[in-house]
Amino acid sequence: MTNHRPLLGATLALLAACGPSKQLNPSQQLITEKPVTENATPKSAPKMAALDYPKAAKGPQTDDYHGTKIADPYRWLENPDSPETKAWVEAENKVTFGYLSQIPYRDRIRERLTQIWNYERYGVPQQEGDYLYYQKNDGLQNQAVLYVKRPDEQGDGEVLLDPNKFSADGTTALSGTYFSNDHRYLAYTTSGGGSDWQTIHLLDLKTRQPLKDEINWVKVSGVAWTKDGFYYSGYDAPKAGENKLAGKNEYHKVYYHKIGTAQAADKLVYENKQMALGFRIASVTEDERFLTIYLTDGKSDGNKLAVRDLTDAKQAGKWTMLGQDYESDMNVVGNIGGRLLVYTNYKAPRYRILAIDPKHPEPTSWKDLLPETENKLEGIDQVGGKLVATYLKDASSLIKVYDEAGKALRDVELPAIGTASGFGGRKDSKAVYYAFTSFTYPTTIYRYDLAGGQSTVWRAPKVDVKPDDYVTTQVFYASKDGTKIPMFITHKKGLKLNGQHPTYLYAYGGFNVSLTPGFSVARMLWLENGGVLAIPNLRGGGEYGEAWHKAGMTPNKQNVFDDFYAAADYLKVQGYTSTEKLAVAGGSNGGLLVGALMTQRPDICKVAFPAVGVMDMLRYQKFTIGWNWAPEYGTSDNYQQFQNLVKFSPLHNLKPGTSYPATMITTADHDDRVVPAHSFKFAATLQEANAGPNPQLIRIDVNAGHGAGKSTKLLIDEWADVWSFAYYNMGVNPYQNLK
What we know:
Elements: H1 8-13, E1 62-65, E2 68-71, H2 83-100, H3 106-117, E3 121-122, E4 126-128, E5 131-137, E6 145-149, E7 158-161, E8 172-179, E9 185-192, E10 198-204, E11 209-218, E12 224-226, E13 229-234, E14 253-258, E15 267-270, E16 280-284, E17 290-295, E18 304-309, E19 320-322, E20 330-336, E21 339-344, E22 352-356, E23 367-370, E24 376-383, E25 386-393, E26 396-403, E27 408-411, E28 419-422, E29 431-438, E30 441-449, E31 455-459, E32 470-478, E33 484-492, E34 503-506, H4 521-528, E35 532-536, H5 546-550, H6 557-573, E36 582-587, H7 589-600, E37 607-611, H8 630-633, H9 639-648, E38 662-668, H10 677-689, E39 696-701, H11 712-730
Parallel strand pairs: 34-35, 34-36, 36-37, 37-38, 38-39
Antiparallel strand pairs: 1-2, 3-5, 4-5, 5-6, 6-7, 8-9, 9-10, 10-11, 12-13, 13-14, 14-15, 16-17, 17-18, 18-19, 20-21, 21-22, 22-23, 24-25, 25-26, 26-27, 28-29, 29-30, 30-31, 32-33, 33-35
């Protein structure tokens, strides 16, 4: 559900982690473990017939990067729609699924995953007028359903939208909901096959009937309501013959749509014909006074704000600019009369809230409302005359409530160390709702009374797991340069540190994204069979603010990889696992992380899972919105940045004659964020280069995308294959432990 949190953080990164969600035992205590050196050598994986990989034709393509010539023989795989690529995908999947089908306990793993996945899951409710709106999945539904009910009504009320009926195969998702300020209309967005392209639809909440309005070619956008319509962002429709899933997205525009009119009649509100790259995203304050356009340049890591007072006739057609450059984040989260509340890291790397009068836009006139603290401010909600601030303390949630003058009122008491999210509402809200979760604490929804400060359980799930059987610890280990890196480690209580335990090491490390504790039914199968789950908070993430983030950005990206390797080494030295029992995983930017590990330290683990990874660091900026990642990585267009990128680009550092870990690359044919060409070219090169006995597979989902909106069936199938592949190549048979 949509709330009033900062818009740009997740939207502009567009690289949310695609692996399992993140989580903590309700009764746990955080401790630092003492080193142990006991280790053991596990059995090797059982033998399987040698794999006959598809022969990928090599082309003559060579590119000149600042005088350095680099071959790109599999350039043809960049076209996902060509007959040659489709034939290669089909052949690769035949090899992959042929291999997986021979694993004897794969079906039992899928059965157990289906069993524990089958429980009711609720989203955080949002009150609009006299009604609550929330999403619920009965258990095995492919997509969650949107319900409506009165707050005091028993049961689940009425189905408002059922995304399972949007498409025959359950792959069209409800990707966003946006309520008009008078509670009369709902704008909702859908995306098909996991694509980032969205379509906006309208629903009359009074009659519960859909309107004819339909807006296409929307991407990186919210819906900002005002009066009889809304603002949104999008691109021109692709030209005839242009690949809508791989073509470079340029000239982002803001439009205004009036209810009941055709998209062709929408008014162009903002564009910059001189700036092809960058995003322009509209936001309107709840009182519909201020229109704000978030502006990025595609080169820097922050944004400017263009502000217009919609109640001032003299402001018509004019913009007031906030922000001196594109280096700092500037996000409007509300307003108090004529003052905007701005969430920013301007001269505050751990973020703060400023009060800014647009009539006096110069920084010398900005006032601290919530100053920077020792903890990272993740977000804020202006609700019920209060400010609810979410902080991170060592990668776990700390929630504080302030009045609108910035006076601290109280902390929200959470049930354990974990992650709290939600708290969205309106300025007249009496209560808000939030979700709490941790590694073994299933996501529970709470109602929070703003006046009294009490939390009560609204919905608690019943999952076929035993949270009290597990413990989570947080440790701090030293990276290569001595920097202390936090890591959560979850396992069954009473675990003996003998180096014998299958361990799943998952990380991300980039784009200011914070990995905090979260529940995953998929990972519970791993844990209940004696596995260890380890999640380090690498530099490049947002756990400790912008300084932590920048320590993992270009030209410092190697720090992220070093932090990851140090985590793997720590787990082995401490006796949790060994090389033969270690699996590493990451998605998107985390897929790059795993790819770098494979090429820089191929002997560090037994199994590798690079998911939807950015593998071609020399060409990523040429596809869809890849140019938006330039501040994070640098680009090959710049000589110095090229010199850095070519050192760690996974595709360009695979070496013939090397023994690589057992690898299963995962991607999807409709991924238009990290286009599948990254994984395709990496897989073809890897299969040719590998000289060892370990399998090098690529698993390609058909009619799926980067991860968002993936159906329950696809998720269960994928996780069954991931765990089967890991166990098999570690020489572990979990069959006897499955229920």
